[in-house]
Design brief:
The chain is an all-beta fold. Helix content is 0%, strand content 38%. A hairpin with a 2-residue loop joins strand 12 and strand 13.
């Protein structure tokens, strides 16, 4: 018998990927001294894995290379992220008694964008529907207003990467 056939070394992981997502790729059964990628940013790496943030705009494919290994570079298709949709307020009008607590204001979750699902929510309020101020600590998908003594308007902004989306307005009378 002759020597065993050489073991093929390869890079495995998700293909295709969506812009804005972070994906880990593994190298087996060999090791790399370092990693390179076109159209992405390396977040972390070891001799057998690399985690890549696909954050480059207008990039349709990325080449991942395990430097110092026998593995062939892996070409990954990068699909454009769907546009950011910030969601909308479902209960946009309610009437309450003076100094009463209104019902929670509910808004649908944000989708799309290039932030890989890391949405930043911020709620705003106004008494004239023109000049809005951010509400300290109001960073959830929904918002529970306090007891009110004046008509108040609310809206939510969603930030995702470099994109922002502002919802429709809720009025509490």
């Amino acid at each position: 018998k002759g020597p065993p056939p050489p073991v093929s070394c390869s890079i495995s992981g998700t293909n295709p990927v969506t812009q804005g997502n972070t994906v880990t790729y593994t190298l087996s059964p060999c090791t790399a001294t370092s990693w390179t990628v076109t159209c992405g940013t390396i977040q972390s790496s070891t001799s057998t894995s690399v985690t890549i943030y696909f954050n480059i705009l207008n990039c349709t494919s990325a080449v991942i290379t395990a430097v110092g290994s026998t593995a062939s570079p892996k070409t990954v298709t990068v699909n454009a992220a769907p546009p950011l949709t910030g969601g909308s307020i479902s209960n946009s009008a309610q009437s309450i008694n003076y100094n009463a607590v209104p019902a929670q204001i509910n808004a649908t979750a944000a989708t799309g964008g290039t932030c890989g699902g890391s949405y930043i929510y911020q709620w705003y309020s106004s008494t004239d529907s023109v000049n809005y101020s951010s509400i300290s600590g109001a960073t959830g998908q929904n918002y529970q207003p306090p007891a009110l003594i004046v008509n108040t308007f609310y809206k939510r902004q969603v930030n995702c990467g470099t994109s922002a989306w502002t919802s429709n307005v809720a009025k509490v009378t």
